[in-house]
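Severity: low
Component: inverse-folding endpoint
Summary: output formatting inconsistent between runs
Steps to reproduce: submit the following structure tokens with default settings.
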């Protein structure tokens, strides 16, 4: 079944329209999902509420609310800074969806980094980052980057995430490759018999 998803063998837009009532997907949620599928088909990356608002008449606030609802219901997920439709696609194909790991408590992590309680506005800013499709780990990585740079502001964190999304960075702190030491020499070089070369 995963091959069907990877090779796009199924027309999920038609399947969504036919099964939306059965899955209790509202008309507006269905409309936004169709817009996300269309943007994905034409290669728009990352898909954000502002990208969606450019091609529809819904307000940005309404799009945010619908996206949060879709994420909460596990019809879409956030992976590496963009929206992922695989949970919905698996549901449309009657495949069991894997429950995602518990979300990180971003508010307490931000409060630890800032050294104070967050205001309501700052909590809304964290939610808006999640609505833009950034996953919790990436938001924490951007926060760590801002702490490392000594500029702990939401504007800086948002710019870091935007840059990562633009250049396709999926994980900021990837494990480093083990370095080979200069003493390690390939076995074929060790076994080379140079004195036999002229014979």
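Observed output (run 2 of 3):
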């Amino acid at each position: 079944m995963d091959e069907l998803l990877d090779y796009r063998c199924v027309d999920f837009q038609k399947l969504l329209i036919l099964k939306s009532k059965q899955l209790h997907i509202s008309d507006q949620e269905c409309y936004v999902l169709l817009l996300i599928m269309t943007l994905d088909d034409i290669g728009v990356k990352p898909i954000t509420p502002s990208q969606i608002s450019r091609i529809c008449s819904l307000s940005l606030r309404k799009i945010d609310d619908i996206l949060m609802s879709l994420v909460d219901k596990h019809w879409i997920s956030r992976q590496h800074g963009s929206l992922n439709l695989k949970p919905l696609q698996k549901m449309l194909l009657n495949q069991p969806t894997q429950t995602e790991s518990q979300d990180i408590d971003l508010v307490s992590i931000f409060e630890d980094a800032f050294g104070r309680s967050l205001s309501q506005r700052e909590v809304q800013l964290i939610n808006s980052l999640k609505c833009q499709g950034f996953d919790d780990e990436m938001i924490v990585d951007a926060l760590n980057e801002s702490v490392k740079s000594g500029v702990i502001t939401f504007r800086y964190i948002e710019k870091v995430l935007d840059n990562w999304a633009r250049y396709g960075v999926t994980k900021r702190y990837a494990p480093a490759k083990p370095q080979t030491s200069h003493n390690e020499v390939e076995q074929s070089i060790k076994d080379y018999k140079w004195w036999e070369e002229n014979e």
